[in-house]
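Format notes (please read before filing issues)

Several people have asked whether sequences and structure tokens are stored in separate files. They are not. Every record keeps both together, in the order shown below: the sequence lines, then the token lines. Line labels are part of the format and must not be stripped during preprocessing.
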Amino acid sequence: MSHHITIQTANLVRIFQTKNGPVKAVDGVTLQVRHGETYGLIGPDGAGKTTTTRVILGLLRRTAGQSSILGYDSMRDTYQIRERVGYIAQQFSLPPDLTVRENMRFFADIQGVSRRERQARIPELLKFAGLGEFTSRLAGRLSGGMKKKLALACSLIHEPQVVMLDEPTLGVDPVSRREFWDLLGKLRIEKGMTIFICTPYMDEAERCNWVGLIYQGRLIAHDSPDVIKKRVPGRLLEFTPSDFVPARKAITGMEGLLEIQSYGRMLHLFVDSVERRQPEIEALLSAQGISCQGMREIEPRMEEAFISLIRAERKKS
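Then the structure lines:
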């Protein structure tokens, strides 16, 4: 069963008509999400993550191509999809004047969950989300992180087989983000749930089994995080120069340098050979009176791979 495909699209296209003519928000996206995996759709703002998600869910018409969830066609079988899928939209908001428990009941009503099932599930879900002590607190009074957990609990009230989440942790503090991801991990392990998540956070992308990188409506990489990280060119040196701007300028165009990225006051250099280039860089900079603090080779993270792949794509266009 593990190789069973839960979500799939083939050459999916969505064109919006605007004042300035047609815009291709989704441009021939073909992807597959296997049963029980966490699939991360990542990409910069405006890359087409939300539009892709909404077309797969049947909330937006597709212009061309195919899309389905659990074998149900996104356009024809929207009712069957709604019964089996939980969804948290980016602008998802809980009625703030309802308590935590009332919110759960409200979403149970929308999903047509019977009273008997609801009485069993609500306490269980609130406990799962760590909200057991807050049942009578108004949703509007919850912290950002708790709102997200309540939203997740509400989206699970009808026991879906698939959850689709559009940037669910946007603007939430790192601790709450980690707690939210721990809950997602539990759902996957304990319930075998398939999770499809759009995220702008690269550390979250690392936690997915499979990642699709979307840029200008096209899927430019589609693989496990480990494989995507290996697609960056060369090896990676990290250091903090004592004088950032002149250091970056001095190194640019140097032989063997494949790419420069900066992180705050640190420089990340992709080089063809660490052994050869590290002493050259140090010599070049020290000749200009610039010291290199903490120079070391590091493994590329999703963040570096993401920037590198998008830059390569930009050069093509």
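For reference, the curators noted about this record: The radius of gyration is 23 Å. The mean pLDDT is 91.
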